[in-house]
Amino acid sequence: MKWFVRADIDGFFGLALDNLVQLLVIVGLCSHVLGFSDDLIYRHILPGAAVSLLVGNLYYAYQAKQLAALTGRDDICALPYGINTVSLFAHIFLVMLPAKMVAVAAGAANPDIIAWQAGLLACFGSGLIELFGSFVAERLRKATPRAALLSTLSGIALTFISLGFLFRTYAHPVVGLVTLAVILLVYFGKLKFRGNIPGGLVAVLLGVLLSWIMGLAPVGIKPENDLGLFLPIPVVGDLWAALASPQSLTYLSVIIPMGLFNVIGSLQNIESAEAAGDSFPTRPSLMANGIGTLAACVFGSCFPTTIYIGHPGWKAMGARVGYSIMNGAFMTVICLTGSLSYIAWAVPIDAGMAIVLWIGIVIAAQAFQETPKSHAPAVVLGLLPGIAAWGAFMAKSGVRAASDANQSVFNNDLISRFQMADIWIHGAFALEQGFIFTAMILAAMTVAVIERQFINAALWSGAASLLSASGLIHSYRWTASDTALSLTPAWEWAMAYALMGVVFFLAKWLCVADKAAH
Is residue 381 part of a domain? Predict the structure, then answer.
């Protein structure tokens, strides 16, 4: 298999756009929420992110090339890879911002550095969990029905990717719908442009042109930061200071669930790749992911990396190995030169959002296409927790938008106000916490019932009960402007799942087959 094919250009634009969004979010939140200096962001955080992105993208490209040589195939697509979006927000709002607030209250001379070091610690802990999780993940993968693994991804793809970008498409319809038409022609219509010009390139260039015509670009004022070469610098001393801090244990309630979330999410993406025809070994794939995250924190980034959702989409585009290498090289250049802000100024997200929207659609469709027809109800049930999590996110965003910035409204009164409108937001907040586990378990439980494997259904119920009792799912607490996992026992849900298990266990003796059922 060649290191580069023409379709890798399409794959590059899609993956690079996704990674670019994460980097822009990092810069924006670190600057405006945490108040970090440009020096800290551009000389430490972004170079650290560059190291992690380059290491991972090159490894997964090499892995795909090796698999192609081993199987004699020329259609292997490398696993996509980038910064984990969920962990990004968790580390900023649940680790770094509280750390800075405590430091400011204590009169510390360098609260920004303390907050950054807390982020390094969270990234380090997540990397360790990802690394050691690679030794047990394959057993979990074999024990879990495909419908359970793929439906969880579909819920994320359908909501956080597809619906989010669909909103943006209709907010700026001239750019959004015209570029979507190009994507539909090329990837759903299986057409190509004359001259063999990549469809993704056409969509992005057309999107940039329309964005400038419609006034969506340039974005904001022209950047003033100087371009240069900001080479990665090890920050082992700062990481050690975070590890030795007496406050380090207080972040475990974020580090543990986020690390486990990354392991399970990456595992599901490996299963998604296998369903698309590319079977990558689980342990080295997850180990590389953990090493990428550890490399990030050693060189100054606070944000874990992950095997990305979307492999079937990139593969359907025709991307193979080159798109991963191109993405790693591009991200490294913009992170090490300070040019990220200039690209964001000239190329709005709208220019390439149709590609990301298409990826979300493909992932959602895969859960139904690559599982037995009889398992479709399990897939639908597995979608619901992700949709609920997205709904909770939208509800909280609406509350924040409508509230006085100086007044905290996130408390038990909020639940009462929603209930007056017959919206049981308490259930949505409970589903949001650890929803990736809940989705997988509900879908696996349903598959077991469909196949009349009642003991397996009872075991999955027991697993949900234990996760609830440990506080890894459904247990939440109020923060100043959000809800967060509290890692305290969620006894009501633990009891409910345990009783579900009893029902499934007794079904063999209490129920008989309904021969008239369709």
Answer: yes
Residue 516: per-residue pLDDT: 66
Residue 516, in any domain of the structure: no
Nearest alpha-carbon partner for 503 in 464, 457, 439: 457
Coil/strand/helix, residue 260: helix
- At position 496, the amino acid (one-letter code) is A
Domain of residue 457, residue span: 373-400+409-510
φ, ψ of residue 300 to 5 degrees: the values are 115, -5
Q: If you write DSSP's letter for every residue of 150-195 in order, what string do you get?
A: HHHHHHHIIIIIIIHHHHHHHHSHHHHHHHHHHHIIIIIS----TT
Shared domain check, 205 and 224: yes
In DSSP terms, 166 is beta-bridged to: none
The confidence score (pLDDT) of residue 181 equals: 95
Q: What is the pLDDT of residues 405-441, one digit of tens each?
A: 667 788 999 999 999 999 999 999 999 998 888 999 9
User: Is 517 part of a structural domain of the chain?
Assistant: no
Contacts of 31 (CB under 8 A, 6+ apart): 38, 41
Strand pairing category for 81-83 and 483-485? unpaired
Task: List all residues 6 or more positions away from 241 whose beta carbon is below 8 Å from its beta carbon.
Answer: 117
Entry pTM: 0.78
pLDDT greater than 90 at residue 351: no
Please, is 176 exposed, middle or buried when counting C-beta atoms within 10 Å of its C-beta (0-12, 13-18, 19+)?
A: buried
